[in-house]
Fold this sequence. Notes:
Elements: H1 16-20, H2 23-29, H3 40-49, H4 64-67, H5 69-79, E1 107-116, H6 129-144, E2 152-156, H7 162-170, H8 180-184, E3 196-200, E4 205-209, E5 215-222, H9 226-241, E6 248-249, E7 253-254, E8 266-273, H10 281-290, E9 293-296, E10 309-314, H11 322-342
Antiparallel strand pairs: 1-5, 1-8, 2-3, 3-4, 4-5, 6-7, 8-10, 9-10
Amino acid sequence: xxxxxxxxxxxxxxxxxxxxxxxxxxxxxxxxxxxxxxxxxxxxxxxxxxxxxxxxxxxxxxxxxxxxxxxxxxxxxxxxxxxxxxxxxxxxxxxxxxxxxxxxxxxxxxxxxxxxxxxxxxxxxxxxxxxxxxxxxxxxxxxxxxxxxxxxxxxxxxxxxxxxxxxxxxxxxxxxxxxxxxxxxxxxxxxxxxxxxxxxxxxxxxxxxxxxxxxxxxxxxxxxxxxxxxxxxxxxxxxxxxxxxxxxxxxxxxxxxxxxxxxxxxxxxxxxxxxxxxxxxxxxxxxxxxxxxxxxxxxxxxxxxxxxxxxxxxxxxxxxxxxxxxxxxxxxxxxxxxxxxxxx
Length: 344
């Protein structure tokens, strides 16, 4: 370790927290505690222990965004490329859009997810065992009240044997213990206790409980009917919102453990096969930039592209409505398919 302005950030660190947390600012914040006892030292532990962190700070509860605003706000504005006077843009209405790829030549699957936390509980990295179990029980009770068309089954990971769990994991239905960044933030504490997955009867909607955030609400289907997937997710959000109070701020939107996800807290994307565009990476990147999209490997962030299948998703989450994100994705993927058909 080598100190940076008196703080123990590694000399190789290029994280946002190292960039914005000066020694003076740290001294101003170090005695502050949120009502759940969260401190700036806890918030930055992951960034200190992992020199390759991109952000390096986690929120421990809703209050973190106010108590540690002097360092969190500059990071949020930098990461999200926000203009002055920015604020969360509401808007989560069901959409009517034609299937982009009805013959499923290009689009393998469409997937949209949102993160949600409950305002009455600390966030995942700041929960004790009793709070984590209480959160799980609260969400389980909400699942029991869902209307028939959304109903399904909740499975606690602790009720599964190793073989059963690994089967769900291979299908992408369960989530493993978090990475070292989440581990340093305290998010992995007690795993797999208090963790589980709700799956709707038609298998389109699922909800991860107590992963990085209290809930990850996910809708996924084969093919390119993005509006169908989006609308199914909205139906689940509305049904749960009637029973659960989400952590929300009028300016910042839905609050999450990682500040990169606040706002809509939504990632909308497709897995798409682009054999010709894979050979024209500059052309493909130009399309993604034009439509505010992000290009990732087949398995998501920091993975390789396998058999020309890309993960395409939104690059913006804050200062933009969920419906605008959906339109960006729709138009961007439409442009990619048109380009794939004409590129030689």
